[in-house]
Amino acid sequence: MICIFLGAPGSGKGTQAKRVCASRGMKYIGTGEILRENVSSGTELGKRVKATLEAGHLVDDATMIEIIEEKIKNENSFLMDGFPRTVLQAEALENLFGKYEKSLDAVIFLDVSASEVTKRILGRFSCSSCGKDYNVHINDIKDERCPDCGDALLQRSDDTKDTVIERIEEYSRKTAPLKEFYEKKNILINVCGTGSVDDIFKRITEALDNKN
Ligand SMILES: [Zn+2]
Predict the structure, then answer these.
(1) For the chain, how many structural domains are there in total?
(2) Do you find a cis peptide bond into 9, omega within 30 degrees of 0?
(3) Most exposed among 84, 151, 166, 212, judged by the fewest C-beta atoms under 10 Å?
(4) Is there a domain that residue 119 lies in?
(5) 156 classed as catalytic
(6) pLDDT tens-digit profile of 157-198?
(7) Preceding amide of 177 cis, omega within 30
(8) For this structure, is 85 an active site residue?
(9) What distance in angstroms lies between residue 118's CA and the mean position of ligand 1's atoms?
(10) Is 145 helix (H, G, I), strand (E, B) or coil?
(11) Neighbours of 95 (CB within 10 A)
(12) Is the domain of 19 the same as that of 45?
């Protein structure tokens, strides 16, 4: 099976995508992770994209398509998280699928309201000493202290309300035409992304089972 996962930052997309891969034996192709790994291990690609990522910009289409081609050409069962982000990338992906005789089975859109993702992202903290990540809406946090080591919890510096809202608005603006692109192909599945991690996973599993 070949799938694409779409969802706003904070929608829980990464967690669900990895779980789907584990349960179905699919390869997880997360472009965010691929880029970060290349930067930290200092590969040729990593050196090329480092400055772009550090400035908070998106890596150019040609580079992304090159990465994706390398990852998918020998895979028959995989899930893509973080790509495509634009209609142009989606069209390039169609060409790659044609070239390697593959076909896309489903595009899952994890639907979470802007106010809910904002709440989730603003609830994220990490420990100033041990580095563990927490979410005040999920974990039992008292007095903004780490439940493990008792040190102060800090909010991520780019997680202020204004920047979060901006990121989500940018995401919706860019994703709307992409959703439309896949809707027209009759391949888009909207999955409600609110509720427990287990409930959401169950919804996704049912949607994919119905697709077979
Ligand atoms: Zn700690």
Answers:
(1) 2
(2) no
(3) 212
(4) no
(5) yes
(6) 777 888 888 888 888 888 889 999 999 999 999 999 999 899
(7) no
(8) yes
(9) 24
(10) strand
(11) 11
(12) yes
